[in-house]
């Protein structure tokens, strides 16, 4: 079992990593991140218990989380603090009453990650997606439909930002991820690792519903508004999702779910 410790003073040095969460989210945590809520905590402990650094919870939730504590390493401290103390530490009302500090995984080159995947694999390549809700939604869909990995370009936001983790329901903590260096060529990377790139475009003549995907398929998704660059589009297979009434756009997270659902069953 982990080490339980009662905290009554919001200025206790032991809970410093949890202090002023919103402000510190903006500047980063030097290799650490905050995860929030029971559902996310359960996913984190299930998938990466060795990366849990410490917990801060309302004592009223202790009994309900007994099975989670049993799976934690013995050296992980669990700080127990009443709701008012938790709120004072965090800097806002935390109605979920559960926080975890986690350690980010070591960075991994995108080429190594892709090259090491199975002969049949679906991955997502995200370009310029800076909205944490969209990043979280995409990771949730990736987990639901069995995507093998997510590759982020240099302009994507951090999937281990607290809100992105929460929206992903913890999926951002477990899906293998790599980040591209600025200027790294996406098309060259996919070609070198045997992936066919699929780019979503409202002007595409090939329809998603009729698509037979390659064994190794990479779905390229760009930010809402600017979308993918012409250079990326020119070296990918473009596909479209027909819509009613001349409407030609979807939220990028919604698009990822539709495409991944089709590919999961089309690949067999």
SSE topology sketch:
Layout: E1 3-6, H1 21-27, E2 32-36, H2 38-47, E3 52-57, H3 66-70, E4 77-80, H4 83-90, E5 98-103, H5 110-115, E6 121-127, H6 132-144, E7 149-152, H7 162-167, E8 177-179, H8 186-192, E9 196-200, E10 216-222, H9 230-234, E11 237-239, H10 252-266
Parallel strand pairs: 1-4, 3-4, 6-7, 6-10, 7-8, 9-10, 9-11
Antiparallel strand pairs: 2-5, 3-5
Secondary structural class: alpha/beta
CATH architecture of the largest domain: 3-Layer(aba) Sandwich
**Largest sheet report:** 6 strands, parallel
How big a fraction of the residues is strand? Answer: 15-25%
Helix content: 25-40%
* Strand numbers in spatial order across the main sheet: 8-7-6-10-9-11
Q: Count the DSSP helices.
A: 10
* The CATH homology group name of the largest domain: SPOUT methyltransferase, trefoil knot domain
Listing every helix as H and every strand as E from the N terminus to the C terminus, the arrangement reads: EHEHEHEHEHEHEHEHEEHEH
Which CATH class of the largest domain is shown? Alpha Beta
Concise account of the structure shown:
The protein is an alpha/beta fold. It is built from ten helices and eleven strands.
Fold and architecture overview:
There is one protein chain. By secondary structure, the chain is α/β, with parallel strands linked by helices. It folds into 2 domains: 3-103, 2-Layer Sandwich (60s Ribosomal Protein L30, Chain: A), CATH 3.30.1330.30; 110-266, SPOUT methyltransferase, trefoil knot domain (Alpha/beta knot, 3-Layer(aba) Sandwich), CATH 3.40.1280.10. The protein is built from 10 helices and 11 strands. It has a 6-stranded parallel sheet, with helices on both faces. Strand 3 (52-57), helix 3 and strand 4 form a beta-alpha-beta unit. It is elongated and about 65 Å long. The termini are far apart. 38% of the residues are buried. The mean pLDDT is 92.
């Amino acid at each position: 079992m982990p080490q339980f410790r009662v905290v009554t003073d919001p200025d206790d040095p032991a809970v410093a990593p949890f202090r002023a969460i919103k402000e510190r989210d903006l500047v980063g945590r030097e290799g650490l991140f905050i995860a929030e809520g029971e559902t996310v905590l359960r996913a984190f402990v299930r998938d990466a218990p060795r990366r849990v650094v410490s917990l801060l919870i309302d004592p009223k939730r202790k009994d309900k989380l007994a099975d989670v504590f049993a799976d934690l390493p013995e050296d992980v401290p669990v700080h127990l603090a009443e709701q008012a103390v938790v709120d004072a530490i965090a800097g806002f009302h935390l109605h979920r009453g559960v926080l975890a500090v986690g350690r980010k995984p070591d960075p991994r080159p995108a080429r190594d990650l892709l090259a090491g995947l199975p002969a049949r694999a679906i991955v997502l390549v995200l370009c310029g997606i800076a909205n944490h809700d969209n990043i979280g939604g995409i990771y949730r869909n990736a987990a639901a439909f069995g995507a093998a990995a997510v590759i982020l370009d240099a302009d994507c936001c951090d999937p281990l930002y607290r809100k992105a983790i929460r929206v992903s329901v913890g999926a951002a903590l477990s899906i293998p991820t790599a980040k591209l260096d600025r200027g790294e060529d996406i098309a060259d990377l996919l070609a070198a690792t045997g992936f066919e790139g699929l780019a979503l475009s409202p002007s595409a003549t090939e329809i998603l519903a009729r698509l037979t995907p390659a064994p190794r398929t990479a779905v390229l998704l760009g930010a809402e508004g600017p979308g993918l660059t012409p250079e990326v589009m020119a070296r990918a297979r473009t596909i479209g999702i027909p819509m009613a009434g001349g409407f030609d756009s979807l939220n990028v997270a919604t698009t990822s779910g539709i495409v991944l659902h089709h590919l999961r069953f089309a690949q067999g």
